[in-house]
Amino acid sequence: MNHSIILITTILLFLFILIWLTLIEPNQIEIKHYKIQDPQLKGLRIVFAGDFHFKKHQQKRADKIISLINQQNADLVLSTGDYIYCHKESASMPIAKIAENLSKIQPPFYTTLGNHDFWAGNEKITKEFEKHNITVLSNSNTKIKIKDKTIYIAGVEDLQTGSPNVEKALENTTSPRILLTHSPDIFPDIWQEDINLILAGHLHGGQIRIPLIGAIIIPSKYGNTYSQGLIVDNNNKKMIVTKGLGTSILPIRFNCKPDLIVIDFI
Ligand SMILES: [Fe+2]
Description:
- The protein has helices at about 1-25, 60-70, 95-100, 115-130, 165-170, and strands at about 30-35, 45-50, 75-80, 110, 135, 140-145, 150-155, 175-180, 195-200, 210, 215, 230, 240, 260-265.
- By secondary structure, the chain is an alpha/beta fold.
- The strands form three sheets. Strands 1-14-2-3-4-5 form a six-stranded mixed beta sheet, covered by helices on one side. A six-stranded mixed beta sheet has the order 6-7-8-9-13-12.
- The model has no long low-confidence stretch (mean pLDDT about 95).
């Protein structure tokens, strides 16, 4: 009798953990707010999202994410890429559908691409995005006017699958300027000054984070250093790293909810 109770409890507990890891936590999007002191960008609100990893039949999830982005009353939406799930388009939401979904983002929207996008075909994605007037920044920049401000948004190629060239990305720009990079690992090598903010993703916070220790598996040569949140170095160089909205490799999250970042410049 006692053995049966132990067995049933163990099975139920195992099932609960499995459901939590695969179905509950990966869908608990956390809105993370940051206030950044910056006289040049004061009054501006940016939504930063990344690592969407849209699976094949996830239209409802896409609708939820786009609606959450639009609810934040942002002046500008920025992303550091990874729209594709897995390594190929067959497991993923079709690129045309992803572009159509992203076109519903109301504020001006700019993005770089990630390693998963590269594997599915950067050029194909860029063309599809351009059909919907979405600008992909790839070692390039664009000058935008929002409210009374002129801002440069620059983006570099992905570190794992391309050649990030910060110098080229920032060519002919002046501050205020914001730099998008899929991988946060280029942070210590960025020597250029007057970058108001650097945004990065890719690491998903590790997806599984052990309390007090952090992520146990993280694809960064710096371990947990740039795994998530606001990082400020000794020269006041600032980077915000998103834990991403989706998952890759293992479709699970533990103690590492997906996040959508809202930045208010004060
Ligand atoms: Fe990535």
